[in-house]
Write a structure and sequence with these properties.
The complex is a heterodimer. Chain A has 16 helices and 12 strands. Chain A is an alpha/beta fold. Chain A has an 8-stranded mixed β-sheet with strand order 1-2-6-3-7-8-11-12, sandwiched between helices. In chain A, helix 3 crosses helix 4. The longest helix of chain A is centred in the N-terminal third of the chain and has 20 residues. Classes of the chains: A alpha/beta, B mainly alpha. Chains A and B meet through helix 5, helix 6, helix 7 and helix 8 of A and helix 8, helix 9 and helix 10 of B.
Chain lengths: 329, 236
């Protein structure tokens, strides 16, 4: 009954305004919280993954990375990649990283009359951020990566093993990949925990209305994967999972090579110890490939999604990011 | 968990003894493994996107076959007999799809052996781990057993799905499924013009052309010419 009542729970809680739009991509600026003094720091741009919707970063007031960054006085912008359809099937990684992410960076810089910003990349968005930063280091003052895969072929990476023998050329020709299929893929990494035990766990204790709403919001988010653009997905799987190009320095975007050694700005790399999607070994490889001397690594005792919304992460991660950025203003 | 509890209760009626002794019984382990394998098969059943791939076969029945349910091949045959070349195309397409479907079935069978192995291993682990001494199957006991069961299942699953054999089989299954989807599209592409329907490749070509026109800068003289022509239209 309580779950049914929570069915209408809205997702996303902080006020935001659209500041730029191109094709399906929208750049949002979050409005500052009242009575919060602005921090002396460059604006923050968050680049989320293509595979899920970014509102998980602002799920509800007590589970919102964005709200906590706002509470720390930071100016926060978020890229929403939108919901691609078949008219976007030829959009490639160059478009996502150099055209869309690049345009969002320029838009934020123009608004603030600044030469560089703080870039936060999450999961696949972190990989995009690394590529962007390596190609355009002058625009990124500080880089924060969260659960970001760097070495795509570590022995414990199940996604990588499953992707290794896929014929991506055929898959690209078949068109966009349905979001439901992607959800199924992620659930099948640990199917009994994620498709059975999680729901049984609801019976363990009496759910109050707030908890029921939080559960429903998470379920909405998990099953709300947008369709994946054929060209970009094929490139991502082939270049990163199958050929591990990022660490070999052979990713090429618009005729330019992505060399991680060119990342010399401060880097904060946050990962989840129990991540079943991006294993810690895939994330911590970053330290071996970047050129930065100011490199901080932070492990949080949670899972991949827990890093965005768990109570443990909420009490620690936003504060860590905010203080790390302020210290490098 | 409800299913898990029902299963345990059914077994308890069948073999009345304490729960702790019960789950040490090998026959109980076998029953659990069978049930578990059924769960696995359900979980591994085709997602909706792939289900309609089975239509691919229906689309490409050769027109020579009679008494088949409605498909495009028969529809075309009724409308006007296709040229001999088109009939050859049908037969070739049918052979391609049949080959792919046969491979698809083989791969499903290979995956099924993995599901069986996972179920068996999970059952063995579960029995080896069972330590309950409770005399009754009350809810807390069932819950503990259930959690242990899930843990065993995940461990057995992980041990299998990381293997090279599983990864290759699963990837090939996806590749064959994609080939079937592409074959289905190819058939639709060849039939669509006969019905005056626009094809996917025509829409794609149009979209690419529109995108090119949107992104290419217009020549300055072109703008002037269009202004002029607008004036002419007004004058008329």
């Amino acid at each position: 009954m309580k779950l049914r009542a929570a069915g209408t729970a809205a997702v996303g809680c902080s006020l935001k305004s659209e500041v730029w739009r191109q094709d399906k991509v929208v750049l949002y600026r979050y409005l500052p919280l009242p009575f919060i003094q602005a921090a002396r720091a460059k604006p923050v741009l968050i680049c989320f993954a293509l595979v899920n919707r970014p509102y998980v970063l602002d799920l509800q007031p007590d589970r919102s990375l964005i709200r906590r960054l706002l509470a720390a006085g930071l100016e926060v912008y978020l890229i929403d990649w939108g919901r691609p359809d078949e008219s976007d099937r030829d959009v490639g990684l160059y478009d996502y990283i150099e055209r869309y992410l690049g345009a969002c960076v320029h838009q934020v810089l123009k608004s603030h009359g600044s030469k560089a910003l703080n870039l936060i990349g999450v999961c696949q968005g972190g990989t995009f951020s690394l590529c962007y930063c390596a190609l355009n280091p002058q625009h990124v003052a500080n880089l924060v990566t969260m659960v970001t895969p760097v070495d795509f072929q570590t022995p414990d990476d199940l996604l990588s093993k499953w992707a290794r023998h896929l014929d991506m050329d055929s898959i690209r020709r078949a068109g966009n990949i349905p979001g439901a299929m992607l959800t199924g893929l992620f659930l099948s990494l640990a199917p009994f925990r994620l498709m059975h035990q999680k729901y049984v766990g609801l019976l363990d204790h009496e759910l109050d209305a707030a908890e029921a709403e939080r559960f429903v919001r998470m379920e909405k988010w998990i099953f709300d994967s947008p369709d994946q653009v054929a060209a970009a997905t094929a490139q991502f799987v082939q270049w990163f999972y199958q050929e591990n190009r990022l660490i070999h320095g052979s990713v090429e975007l618009g005729g330019r090579r992505v060399n991680l050694q060119r990342i010399r700005q401060p880097v904060l790399n946050i990962y989840a110890k129990q991540d079943h999607i991006v294993p810690p070994s895939a994330v911590t490889a970053l330290r071996r490939y970047i050129g930065s001397r100011d490199y901080t690594e932070e492990a949080v005792d949670t899972g991949h999604i827990g890093l965005y919304v768990s109570r443990t992460a909420q009490g620690h991660v936003p504060g860590l990011i905010a203080s790390w950025i302020r210290a490098r203003a | 968990m409800e299913r898990f509890g029902q299963l345990l209760r059914a077994i308890l009626i069948e073999f009345p003894s304490s729960a702790g002794a019960l789950i040490k019984d090998e026959s109980v382990g076998q029953r659990l493994a069978v049930e578990f394998e059924r769960w696995l098969r359900e979980a591994a059943s085709m997602p909706p996107w792939w289900q309609n791939l089975q239509m691919a076969q229906a689309f490409v029945q050769p027109p020579s076959q009679s008494g088949q349910p409605f498909n495009l091949g028969t529809a075309l045959k009724m409308q006007a007999a296709p040229a001999p070349l088109a009939q050859n195309d049908f037969i070739q397409a049918y052979q391609r799809v049949s080959g792919l479907m046969a491979r698809w079935s083989q791969l499903q069978a290979q995956l099924a052996t993995h599901w069986s192995a996972i179920a068996r291993t999970a059952g063995e682990r579960f029995i080896a781990r069972a330590t309950s001494s409770s005399t009754a199957l009350d809810l807390p006991t069932i819950r503990k057993l259930y959690d242990s069961w899930i843990e065993c299942a995940e461990q057995a699953y992980a041990a299998t799905v990381h293997t090279d054999d599983f990864c290759r089989t699963q990837a090939e299954l996806v590749n064959v499924t994609t080939s079937l989807l592409l074959e289905q599209r190819r058939q639709v592409e060849s039939f669509a013009p006969m019905f005056g329907v626009v094809t996917r490749s025509e829409v794609d070509a149009l979209r690419r052309e529109m995108k090119r026109m949107q992104t290419e800068p217009r020549p300055a003289s072109g703008r002037r010419a269009s202004k002029g022509s607008r004036r002419k239209v007004k004058a008329r």
